[in-house]
Amino acid sequence: MSPPAEPRSSDISSLRLDLANQGVKVGDDLISAGFGLALASDGGLGGAPGESAEGIDIILPGGWWTNVCVAPNYARTSPYTLSFASPGSETLVLRHRARGDIPISVPDTSRFRHCRTHTGVSCGDIGAIHGPWLVTSPFTARAGVGLDRPRRFLGLPPQRPLTKGQWSIDDVVACAEAAWRSGARLVHIEAGHVLKEDGGLADIGPYIQAIKRALPTLVSLSVLPPEDPAQVLHLYAAGCDAISYPLLAWDEAAAAQVAPVRARFVSHARILAALEAAARWFPRGAVSTDLLLGLEPLKNVGEACAALAAKGIVPNLTVFRPLPGAEDEAPSGEMVPTDPILQLMEKRTRLLHTYRLASSRVRGFPRVHSGMDRYRPSVAKRWYSDWRRRIRVVEVT
């Protein structure tokens, strides 16, 4: 009997977009079986809205990873339900009235999440594994900027009320080492709510340096930009391999609607200046920005992709997922049909190839509809990253 045919990439792309747009309901059979623990929830999926992690990873046919929203308030109208294939079975399926049952699996990261640092902190509270990536958010939100959204997007439980303001460097390094033992070979630090004049250099630099001393890994970072674009070089020199400064939308007014607090302190011009500076110093393909679909016309997003790629900046496209607790009850955005997004993704892919951004030796954390990047850097690529940094920093300074 011949093995099942590999699903067409166009079908998988369409499915991923559907899931990103509509989310996935969790079946009563899974909730009854205590499946909430496997989804890294804090209080169970049957708890109050906002208590569970916003995103979980699932593996679709063909081995494609994708992140879906399971928050009850977001996915309540979704036609997709995550269930067991049959009573007593451990096989998982996405159940859809028209498409039938789609076999999927959920990555098992329980061993990593239950590891503890020397201070007794669970690694699952510090970081989350997404394929080859460890993603961590060492700092809690400061003064209302960003709130708890980065943690929920990354599949981390909300910070408990008595949790300290930030994890120690030793805790984060221990978490990275536990993730390495579980097969994660890359580290992404999410610090998009750290608002500092130096772009977080003083706060985040020691974490990056400690991780690089402990492991032969690459580190990417998502953070707000510095006031002086020259500070970007210092962050690169500190050991950051890839950087993302999120624009959120090409139109500044649209970005201000979804992040009004941030917009009062960080202008579009400041973000663009930092992106352009980073593209001059970081390796090709290692500088990116996030564009949220549904906040502005897709034509604007297409223009943004062309303009950014021409400057050596990778545009990450993701569906906006509003949840209670977002800044000032941010707008929900509009659900964008699948076909126009697929066309935009094709245009983005052509642009990345045209400007030689698709085959980078060093990449940032991919938050795009094409699924989790399977990129695992070789020893040679890690060596290249360190060698290039030493040469490039000396050249500039």
Dominant shape: globular
Fraction of residues in H or I helices: 25-40%
Strand order of the largest sheet: 7-8-9-10-11-12-13
Low-confidence stretches: 40-52, 141-155, 157-164, 324-330
Total helices: the number is 15
- Tell me the β content: 15-25%
Backbone structural class: alpha/beta
Largest sheet: 7 strands, mixed
Question: Based on the structure, what is the oligomeric state of the protein chains?
Answer: single chain
Average of per-residue pLDDT values:
81
Number of beta-strand segments: 13
Rg from Cα: 20 Å
Report on this structure.
This protein has a seven-stranded mixed beta sheet. α7 (169-181) packs across α8 (201-214) and α13 runs parallel beside α14 (338-354). It is an alpha/beta fold. It contains 15 helices and 13 strands. The chain is 37% helix and 16% strand. The N and C termini lie far apart (63 Å).
Topology:
Blueprint: H1 9-22, E1 25-26, H2 28-32, E2 55-60, E3 64-69, H3 72-75, E4 81-84, E5 92-96, E6 100-104, H4 110-114, H5 123-126, E7 127-130, E8 133-136, H6 149-153, H7 169-181, E9 186-191, H8 201-214, E10 218-223, H9 231-237, E11 242-244, H10 252-258, H11 260-265, H12 268-281, E12 287-293, H13 298-310, E13 314-319, H14 338-354, H15 379-396
Parallel strand pairs: 1-4, 8-9, 9-10, 10-11, 11-12, 12-13
Antiparallel strand pairs: 2-3, 4-5, 5-6, 7-8
Helix pairs in contact: 1-14, 7-8, 13-14
